[in-house]
Amino acid sequence: GAGVSQSPSNKVTEKGKDVELRCDPISGHTALYWYRQSLGQGLEFLIYFQGNSAPDKSGLPSDRFSAERTGGSVSTLTIQRTQQEDSAVYLCASSFQGQGTEAFFGQGTRLTVV
Amino acid sequence: GENVEQHPSTLSVQEGDSAVIKCTYSDSASNYFPWYKQELGKGPQLIIDIRSNVGEKKDQRIAVTLNKTAKHFSLHITETQPEDSAVYFCAASTTGNQFYFGTGTSLTVIP
Predict the structure, then answer these.
(1) Cβ of residue A55 closer than 8 Å to a chain B Cβ
(2) Quick check: B42 and A107 CB within 8 A?
(3) Which of A48, A87, A92, B91 is the most exposed, fewest CB within 10 Å of its CB?
(4) Do B98 and A108 touch (CB under 8 A)?
(5) Residue A37 pLDDT > 80, yes or no?
(6) Which residues of chain B have a pLDDT value below 70?
(7) Distance between CA atoms of A34 and B30, rounded to whole angstroms?
Protein backbone atom coordinates (compact mmCIF):
# COMPACT_ATOMS: atom_id res chain seq x y z
CA GLY A 1 0.00 0.00 0.00
CA ALA A 2 0.92 3.64 -0.26
CA GLY A 3 1.03 4.37 3.45
CA VAL A 4 1.48 2.81 6.87
CA SER A 5 -1.39 0.49 7.66
CA GLN A 6 -2.47 -0.46 11.17
CA SER A 7 -5.01 -3.03 12.27
CA PRO A 8 -7.40 -3.19 13.87
CA SER A 9 -8.48 0.44 13.83
CA ASN A 10 -10.42 -0.09 17.05
CA LYS A 11 -10.10 -2.76 19.72
CA VAL A 12 -12.14 -3.22 22.87
CA THR A 13 -10.86 -5.80 25.28
CA GLU A 14 -11.56 -6.94 28.79
CA LYS A 15 -9.11 -6.19 31.54
CA GLY A 16 -6.62 -9.03 31.90
CA LYS A 17 -6.81 -10.19 28.29
CA ASP A 18 -3.90 -10.07 25.85
CA VAL A 19 -4.06 -7.99 22.67
CA GLU A 20 -2.00 -7.85 19.49
CA LEU A 21 -1.76 -4.74 17.35
CA ARG A 22 -0.38 -4.93 13.83
CA CYS A 23 1.58 -2.46 11.74
CA ASP A 24 2.41 -2.76 8.03
CA PRO A 25 5.06 -0.16 7.22
CA ILE A 26 5.67 1.49 3.88
CA SER A 27 7.46 -0.94 1.61
CA GLY A 28 11.22 -0.49 1.75
CA HIS A 29 11.25 1.46 4.99
CA THR A 30 13.89 0.09 7.31
CA ALA A 31 12.88 1.92 10.47
CA LEU A 32 9.66 1.32 12.38
CA TYR A 33 8.40 3.11 15.49
CA TRP A 34 5.61 2.55 17.97
CA TYR A 35 4.15 5.42 19.96
CA ARG A 36 1.27 5.67 22.39
CA GLN A 37 -1.07 8.62 22.62
CA SER A 38 -3.44 8.94 25.54
CA LEU A 39 -6.55 11.09 25.17
CA GLY A 40 -5.54 14.69 24.52
CA GLN A 41 -1.90 13.97 25.20
CA GLY A 42 1.34 13.92 23.26
CA LEU A 43 3.17 11.00 21.71
CA GLU A 44 4.90 8.63 24.11
CA PHE A 45 7.74 6.60 22.58
CA LEU A 46 7.48 2.84 23.05
CA ILE A 47 9.92 1.00 20.78
CA TYR A 48 12.04 1.56 17.66
CA PHE A 49 13.28 -0.99 15.11
CA GLN A 50 16.05 -0.12 12.66
CA GLY A 51 17.02 -2.74 10.09
CA ASN A 52 18.68 -5.76 11.68
CA SER A 53 19.87 -3.86 14.74
CA ALA A 54 18.65 -4.69 18.20
CA PRO A 55 15.46 -2.69 18.85
CA ASP A 56 15.43 0.28 21.20
CA LYS A 57 12.94 -0.88 23.83
CA SER A 58 13.63 1.91 26.28
CA GLY A 59 10.09 3.32 26.06
CA LEU A 60 8.15 0.17 26.89
CA PRO A 61 6.29 0.97 30.13
CA SER A 62 6.35 -2.52 31.63
CA ASP A 63 7.20 -6.13 30.86
CA ARG A 64 3.59 -6.65 29.79
CA PHE A 65 4.50 -4.83 26.58
CA SER A 66 6.54 -6.46 23.83
CA ALA A 67 6.97 -6.00 20.10
CA GLU A 68 8.53 -7.87 17.26
CA ARG A 69 9.23 -7.18 13.65
CA THR A 70 9.34 -10.18 11.37
CA GLY A 71 11.43 -10.17 8.21
CA GLY A 72 12.14 -6.48 8.60
CA SER A 73 8.59 -5.59 7.61
CA VAL A 74 5.40 -6.20 9.58
CA SER A 75 5.47 -5.45 13.28
CA THR A 76 3.23 -6.67 16.09
CA LEU A 77 2.87 -4.92 19.43
CA THR A 78 1.60 -7.26 22.15
CA ILE A 79 0.14 -6.16 25.45
CA GLN A 80 -0.36 -8.93 27.98
CA ARG A 81 -2.81 -8.84 30.88
CA THR A 82 -4.22 -5.50 29.77
CA GLN A 83 -5.05 -2.85 32.33
CA GLN A 84 -7.41 0.11 32.05
CA GLU A 85 -4.46 2.50 31.94
CA ASP A 86 -3.38 0.83 28.69
CA SER A 87 -6.36 2.45 26.97
CA ALA A 88 -4.93 4.79 24.34
CA VAL A 89 -4.29 5.18 20.64
CA TYR A 90 -1.26 3.18 19.53
CA LEU A 91 0.49 4.74 16.57
CA CYS A 92 3.01 3.14 14.25
CA ALA A 93 5.37 5.04 11.95
CA SER A 94 8.02 4.04 9.43
CA SER A 95 10.88 5.81 7.71
CA PHE A 96 13.55 5.08 5.11
CA GLN A 97 16.80 5.81 6.85
CA GLY A 98 18.85 5.93 3.71
CA GLN A 99 17.33 9.03 2.17
CA GLY A 100 16.49 11.13 5.14
CA THR A 101 14.46 10.49 8.19
CA GLU A 102 10.94 11.53 7.31
CA ALA A 103 8.62 9.34 9.34
CA PHE A 104 5.09 8.59 8.22
CA PHE A 105 2.39 7.54 10.64
CA GLY A 106 -0.49 5.14 10.32
CA GLN A 107 -3.98 6.03 11.45
CA GLY A 108 -3.51 4.29 14.78
CA THR A 109 -5.30 1.60 16.76
CA ARG A 110 -7.64 2.86 19.44
CA LEU A 111 -7.46 0.42 22.34
CA THR A 112 -10.11 0.47 25.02
CA VAL A 113 -9.73 -1.78 28.05
CA VAL A 114 -12.99 -2.29 29.95
CA GLY B 1 18.09 11.89 26.21
CA GLU B 2 16.51 14.66 24.20
CA ASN B 3 13.86 16.93 25.74
CA VAL B 4 11.54 18.90 23.48
CA GLU B 5 9.33 21.66 24.86
CA GLN B 6 6.51 23.20 22.85
CA HIS B 7 4.55 26.41 23.35
CA PRO B 8 1.78 27.43 23.44
CA SER B 9 -0.39 24.45 24.30
CA THR B 10 -3.44 26.16 22.80
CA LEU B 11 -3.67 28.92 20.22
CA SER B 12 -6.67 30.71 18.75
CA VAL B 13 -6.36 33.05 15.78
CA GLN B 14 -8.75 34.81 13.46
CA GLU B 15 -8.96 33.49 9.94
CA GLY B 16 -6.35 35.23 7.80
CA ASP B 17 -4.02 35.96 10.70
CA SER B 18 -0.68 34.24 11.28
CA ALA B 19 0.05 31.54 13.83
CA VAL B 20 3.42 30.79 15.39
CA ILE B 21 4.33 27.73 17.42
CA LYS B 22 7.70 27.46 19.13
CA CYS B 23 9.79 24.50 20.27
CA THR B 24 13.07 24.14 22.10
CA TYR B 25 15.31 21.10 22.30
CA SER B 26 18.14 20.09 24.58
CA ASP B 27 20.42 17.76 22.62
CA SER B 28 22.83 19.63 20.37
CA ALA B 29 23.29 16.41 18.36
CA SER B 30 19.70 16.58 17.07
CA ASN B 31 19.79 17.30 13.37
CA TYR B 32 16.30 16.74 12.03
CA PHE B 33 13.17 18.64 13.04
CA PRO B 34 9.80 17.66 11.58
CA TRP B 35 6.40 19.17 12.23
CA TYR B 36 3.24 17.10 12.25
CA LYS B 37 -0.42 18.05 11.99
CA GLN B 38 -2.96 15.77 13.64
CA GLU B 39 -6.65 16.05 12.91
CA LEU B 40 -9.23 14.47 15.16
CA GLY B 41 -9.26 10.70 14.89
CA LYS B 42 -6.30 10.54 12.52
CA GLY B 43 -2.62 9.82 12.76
CA PRO B 44 -0.07 12.66 12.65
CA GLN B 45 0.72 13.91 9.16
CA LEU B 46 4.12 15.34 8.26
CA ILE B 47 3.66 18.89 6.99
CA ILE B 48 7.18 20.30 6.88
CA ASP B 49 10.64 19.49 8.15
CA ILE B 50 14.04 21.10 8.45
CA ARG B 51 17.54 19.78 8.84
CA SER B 52 20.29 21.33 10.91
CA ASN B 53 22.23 22.61 7.91
CA VAL B 54 19.35 24.91 6.98
CA GLY B 55 18.03 27.96 8.83
CA GLU B 56 14.66 28.35 7.17
CA LYS B 57 12.35 26.42 4.90
CA LYS B 58 9.07 27.48 3.34
CA ASP B 59 6.26 25.62 1.65
CA GLN B 60 3.40 27.85 0.52
CA ARG B 61 1.75 29.21 3.69
CA ILE B 62 3.93 27.19 6.05
CA ALA B 63 7.48 27.99 7.09
CA VAL B 64 9.86 26.63 9.68
CA THR B 65 12.89 28.39 11.15
CA LEU B 66 15.74 26.84 13.08
CA ASN B 67 18.23 28.50 15.41
CA LYS B 68 20.86 25.89 16.25
CA THR B 69 22.75 28.13 18.62
CA ALA B 70 19.70 28.76 20.75
CA LYS B 71 18.32 25.26 20.15
CA HIS B 72 14.90 26.39 19.10
CA PHE B 73 12.74 26.07 16.03
CA SER B 74 9.39 27.52 15.09
CA LEU B 75 6.45 26.84 12.80
CA HIS B 76 4.83 29.78 11.05
CA ILE B 77 1.47 29.54 9.33
CA THR B 78 0.36 32.59 7.38
CA GLU B 79 -3.10 33.47 6.09
CA THR B 80 -4.66 30.86 8.34
CA GLN B 81 -7.78 29.04 7.21
CA PRO B 82 -10.35 27.04 9.20
CA GLU B 83 -8.91 23.81 7.81
CA ASP B 84 -5.64 24.63 9.56
CA SER B 85 -7.40 23.90 12.87
CA ALA B 86 -5.72 20.83 14.34
CA VAL B 87 -3.09 19.75 16.86
CA TYR B 88 0.47 20.43 15.78
CA PHE B 89 3.50 18.54 17.11
CA CYS B 90 7.15 19.40 16.75
CA ALA B 91 9.83 16.74 17.03
CA ALA B 92 13.59 16.39 17.11
CA SER B 93 15.83 13.47 16.25
CA THR B 94 19.26 12.41 15.18
CA THR B 95 19.73 10.17 12.16
CA GLY B 96 19.02 6.56 13.06
CA ASN B 97 17.32 7.31 16.34
CA GLN B 98 13.83 7.76 17.66
CA PHE B 99 11.83 10.97 17.43
CA TYR B 100 11.24 13.06 20.53
CA PHE B 101 7.96 14.94 20.35
CA GLY B 102 6.72 18.12 21.93
CA THR B 103 3.47 18.04 23.86
CA GLY B 104 1.40 19.53 21.05
CA THR B 105 -0.36 22.80 20.25
CA SER B 106 -4.09 22.85 19.64
CA LEU B 107 -4.68 25.49 16.97
CA THR B 108 -8.15 26.90 16.40
CA VAL B 109 -8.77 29.20 13.45
CA ILE B 110 -11.89 31.27 14.01
CA PRO B 111 -13.83 32.04 10.82
Answers:
(1) no
(2) yes
(3) A87
(4) no
(5) yes
(6) none
(7) 20
